[in-house]
Amino acid sequence: MEKTKIFLDENDMPKRWYNIQADLPKPLPPVYSPRTLKRATLEELSVIFPMEILKQEVSQERWINIPKEILDIYAVWRPSPLYRAVRLEKALKTPAKIYFKWEGVSPAGSHKPNTAVPQAYYNMKEGTQTITTETGAGQWGSALSYATSLFDITCRVYMVRVSYDQKPYRRNLIHLWGAEVFPSPSDRTNSGRSMLQEDPNHPGSLGIAISEAVEDAATHDETKYSLGSVLNHVCMHQTVLGLESKEQLKMEESYPDIVIGCVGGGSNFSGISFPFLHDKLKGDKKDLRVVAVEPYSCPTLTKGMYAFDYGDSTKLGPIAKMYTLGHDFVPPGIHAGGLRYHGDSPIVSALYDQKIIEAQAYHQNEVFEAAILFAQTEGHVLAPETAHAVKSAIEEAKKCKQTGEEKVILFSASGHGHFDLTSYELYRDGKLADYEYPAELVKQSLQRLPKIEED
Amino acid sequence: MEKTKIFLDENDMPKRWYNIQADLPKPLPPVYSPRTLKRATLEELSVIFPMEILKQEVSQERWINIPKEILDIYAVWRPSPLYRAVRLEKALKTPAKIYFKWEGVSPAGSHKPNTAVPQAYYNMKEGTQTITTETGAGQWGSALSYATSLFDITCRVYMVRVSYDQKPYRRNLIHLWGAEVFPSPSDRTNSGRSMLQEDPNHPGSLGIAISEAVEDAATHDETKYSLGSVLNHVCMHQTVLGLESKEQLKMEESYPDIVIGCVGGGSNFSGISFPFLHDKLKGDKKDLRVVAVEPYSCPTLTKGMYAFDYGDSTKLGPIAKMYTLGHDFVPPGIHAGGLRYHGDSPIVSALYDQKIIEAQAYHQNEVFEAAILFAQTEGHVLAPETAHAVKSAIEEAKKCKQTGEEKVILFSASGHGHFDLTSYELYRDGKLADYEYPAELVKQSLQRLPKIEED
Fold first, then answer.
1. Which of A71, A107, A168 sits opposite B380 (nearest CB)?
2. Minimal CA separation from B283 to chain A, in Å
3. For the structural domain made of A17-65+111-232, what CATH number should be given?
4. What CATH number labels A5-10+67-109+238-446?
5. Which of A98, A185, A244, B243 allows an S-S link to B14, with CB 3.0 to 4.6 Å?
6. What ipTM did this prediction achieve?
7. Do the domains at B5-10+67-109+238-446 and B17-65+111-232 have one common CATH topology?
8. Chain B: residue nearest A375 by CA?
9. A176 to chain B: which residues are within 8 Å by CB?
């Protein structure tokens, strides 16, 4: 019988993360302080991050060992299964072989715990008592809540108010693992209070929630801040995705022609693709295509500018060089909330700038259509974010049908959509809008980038 | 590294279901017609069930081959992982070894597709165009919707109206896989219309929904009815659970001292336990304890009567000998909706009557407390139904702590609780009631059992 799932034995789980910084054609530009507009110092950053995390952020070592305590917890859902999407292939009548890495099996239901667990662990080692963070739809907040519960760390999550009210299930999930969750803007911070003064019914935004979480961490002892994407160490933690996939494909005597991931901040995309890009950067797999997929309404890579910008809309976080639509650009309210970020991982941005990877953008209705075809063939219900990767994989497989090529396509199925069923229902009822790309807004936003003098 | 998960290779998946009827100390009593109160004929039953299903229902063969087409689909989530609950053991400071079989990985999120897929398959083989069914909270309706989508069968689900209104997510899930779902009582059937005439805002009940689904099947061509629990063939399809667990424990050189499953209609419990009971019935494992766990507010085994009764409250379904609280008993509205059934599988009932298995009952608050300890140690969020099994496993492990015995405890983690987070939140807020056992109601209900003259 041809296999549907390729399992990797727990004992063969990767023992090291892959740090692509060691292999980049040129080093990443430095990070700047939002306060001084000069290079950010370790001292500044150490107010909100533990030292081991900061070391990993700038490390040039190719491999970083995963501590045993983290491997033990990874084993709850790792190695995750790699699937061959035989029924989807059949429905598409394509000669392509489609594989997907299924991260929906983690307790929080996505790839996010892959970095939440190490971040909580390193904080615990350095004596952190409380970790603060922000969350939009709640994917990251629930993953961090799970991770902190394992190390007896208190966790405070600032959740964008409109999601807090509209998505009670993820809020409940955060509670279930023992974290506190506050609707943001809250009256717990100066940032929050000033927003509430402007508008007592303020719906909130990811930018404001970040400000609240950072302020909370900076103003309390033994309290640090944690980010679920974008940063180098986060992308590195996610490389377990690609490392496992590589081993699993090897068991099938296969190697991908195309690797696909959806991109919000970039951590899931980094995770699935960096271990394969390792081969390409070495010159071994020159024809490998790596595709980042984003929503048409928040097209950071495909329409943004490669420039220095703030990581958050309220200018509290560090300034990095990245593809950006402008730190105060607010994307239309699509249902793939995890992809509504104005910027992108500095590493992913550098790779795109150097034409090592490609990018594609899709509208949400065509993305949901793809997810429903996937659910009706492969069974699993995907998060709307993940559905962007499926859409791209289907398009590539259709091309193979035309050309007759038996390409191997790998995509990251980064999370389940069990808390997104309302969005599926809206799609079914024809009630989802496809937003035009807000070109004028972005143009204005890009005029407000910080002026950095590179040294 | 000690393993957290024990995977069985897809090629080692069981190729046969185990039919415990071949090994029962005495044969099951026959089934009677609700219309004639005489033995039900195959002809009567074949109006709503396909022939292969009816054959399996009465088969005395010990092993029944699983067709390749079904194995191919099982491979989407089977073999499911067997976990060693190391963190839970540590939290309990118990010398016991706790294993759980994790069925939350299936597309519909529970063990239900294990029988939905074969039922849809056999219907397809016999030319069924449409399958009707009822669903309470939606676990079964979504599983059948998934299964029918794979065989291009139309599916109509009658969903208890109060759940239809309160649990939109599972209703959406049914839609996503392409089935139709109607709030019951509906105006589509005589049964439904008569209820709506009594009360236009009727909240519905599982009994009424069954009547609607059965009537729909009986009055339409090429339309059959499908049940998700109770019946012999359903329990048999679920034995893949126990057969896989047995292989997985063998890989650990282990065998359970105690096997635990929650019981509503009995299919999940049957699935995990029958393959182990096979050994006990042969005389090989005389000391094996098998524990069925039910809610205190619907204590079918622990407080019910072993008698002939209707399977549904509106007396349309066959009459079988089983433990029952009376077919018109309506249990209190606990959150483990899947365990609110007045009766129990005839096989499970016979085993209990013959003291081959044990039964326990718990209140819902202590059950949720156990589920939260589980989530905070093992990560996974369990369905409230499944949480009954966890509660029992924890109690057994605590006993081992007192006696120092290193017992091996296996329980079925039959489904995830991603659509039950509101219930967890109510527990957290101290808003869940523990219902007294409704002894007087049951007493009255038991006076209305059908009078069957055994021949």
1. A107
2. 35
3. 3.40.50.1100
4. 3.40.50.1100
5. B243
6. 0.94
7. yes
8. B177
9. 372, 375, 381, 421, 424, 428
